[in-house]
Structure formats: C-alpha cells, structure tokens
UniProtKB/TrEMBL annotation:
InterPro entries, per database record: DNA/RNA_pol_sf (IPR043502), RNaseH_sf (IPR036397), RVT_2 (IPR013103)
Residues of the signal peptide: none
Pfam family, one: RVT_2
Domain of life: Eukaryota
Name this polypeptide is given: Reverse transcriptase Ty1/copia-type domain-containing protein
Length: 276
C-alpha cells in the first residue's frame, strides 16, 4: 500500500482538510456539467427554481432525447452530495442550473468539531403543492454536531387532508432515518445509543405524535405512519417545536424567494468555500 497523503479528490468531490475542519465541494464537476451541456455562457439566475411554480404533466407529445435527459438528471443528482440546497429543483426536474451554478459552484459543506457528538434532525413538509395529485412533499435533514450529514426530499405516498397530517407523515419518515443514524453512530463509536431530537414547526403535529390515544383527527391516517408514536413513547426520539423561520428543512420542500432561499441555504450549512 502507498500513503498518498490527505484525501484531496475522490469521485468528483474535492476535499480540503485544514485547521481541524474538512470541507467538500464539486466545483470541477459542476464545470464539467456546464461544459457538456453547452451552458457555460448562459444568463445568470438568482435562484434555482421559481417560487410558486406549478408543475403539470405535458399532455402534448414532444420529442425528448431520453438518454440525454436521464444523463443530465443523473449528473444533477450526483451534485447533491455537496449541494443539498438544490435538491427540490432536481427532484422536480425544473432547475435553472446554468445560472445558479455559475455563481455558486464553489459552494459546499464544512465539517468541524462544533456542536458535539450528537445527532439532531429537522422535518418539514409542503402541503398541497403538487396540484395534480394533491400529495405533499417531505423534507428531512440531519446534523452531526453543526454539520449536515443526511438529507432527502420525496413526494408523500398518500394524500393528506390537512397540513398537520402532512407534517405528521414527514416526521415519521424522519424517525426511521433517526433510528438508523443513531444505531450507526453507536456502532462506530462503541458508545451507548443516545436519543435523537427532531425539530418540527407544527405544534398540532407534535401533539398528535405525543398523544397515545387515537381520535377523530388521526384515525384515518395510515397505520404505518403511527410508528413515530411508538418511538416517542419508548423515548428513542424527542420531538420539539421550532419556529418556521429556523426550520432548516424548509428549503427542501418547495421553491423559495431569493432572500429566503439565501438565508435558508446559509442556515442549512452550505457556504462559499472559496472565501474561506
């Protein structure tokens, strides 16, 4: 075996290690995507997706090179390893990639020692955004200390009747991820499993999670989503309320206006690594 020194580049991800911190970004990979798609000279875009955009299925048949389309989407999905702020746009297949990436291709994530060895998560949902199917979007992000380590967004499997139910469904998805992460951390560090805190910005949903008694507002919800009730009862997970302005998963559920997007991107943990 050969000692090649500190890791600097791996599968398109650029790694910088200094001052007890590890930073990752994909500047070179972003440039490659822009070059391959002929978008190096495209106009600037301030945000990756227009707020309030309504996505509908195309009724008229149009020719699309499916191979090229899937290739581009695959490239964008791989870019999400260091750019969780673009996840909603990539999932919705409507990203103004060229302009936003031309300005932010040096953005990435830094991992440090701040925040201790604890895992905490944020769970959010958008209710009624998908106008055709009526299904909400779940957004989840988990942190180890102050650094994001896991994030996802997905369309919910069932139609929620109100926002509280949509938040309840999202929190259940976060609970399954929380259990896996805390068990993984316990195995790696050979320590006792610790409770994971999940922050939700809907008080009604939190009350529903902590109430062991089924009632009129929850009896219609699919049984599998009540898994989080058991997690709370066993004290495996703690659910706490957080103000919507500080809900870090908000950026993962829907397109945001420019100022809100920039604020949430910084809160999420994505920053300009070129200026560091």
């Amino acid at each position: 075996m050969s000692d090649l020194g500190l890791l600097a580049y791996y599968l398109g991800i650029e790694v910088t290690q200094k001052g007890g911190e590890i930073s990752i970004k994909q500047t070179g990979y972003a440039n490659k995507i822009l070059s391959d798609t002929g978008m190096l000279d495209c106009n600037d875009a301030k945000i990756p997706m227009e707020p309030g955009l309504k996505l509908t299925k195309v009724t008229e048949e149009r020719y699309v090179d499916t191979t090229e389309y899937r290739s581009i989407i695959g490239c964008l999905r791989y870019l999400l390893h260091t750019r969780p702020d673009l996840i909603v746009s990539c999932k919705n297949r409507k990203i103004t990639y060229e302009g936003n990436q031309a300005r932010t291709k040096d953005y990435g994530i830094t991992y440090g020692h701040e925040g201790g060895n604890r895992i905490q998560g944020y769970s959010d949902s958008s209710y009624g955004v998908n106008t055709q199917e009526g299904k909400g979007t779940t957004g989840i992000v988990f942190y180890f200390g102050n650094s994001p380590i896991s994030w996802s967004t997905q369309k919910q499997g069932t139609v929620a009747l109100f926002s509280c139910e949509s938040e309840f469904i999202a929190a259940t998805a976060a609970a399954t991820q929380a259990l896996w992460l805390k068990r993984l951390l316990s195995k790696i560090t050979d320590t006792k499993e610790q409770k994971v805190t999940i922050y939700v910005d809907n008080k009604s949903a939190i009350a529903l999670m902590k109430n062991p008694v089924f009632h009129g507002r929850s009896k219609h919800i699919d049984t599998k989503y009540h898994f989080i009730r058991e997690c709370v009862e066993k004290d495996d997970i703690v659910v706490e309320h957080i103000n919507g302005e500080k809900q870090r998963a908000d950026i993962l559920t829907k397109p945001l206006p420019r100022i809100r997007f920039v604020t949430m991107r910084q809160l999420l943990g994505v920053k300009d690594l070129l200026q560091q």
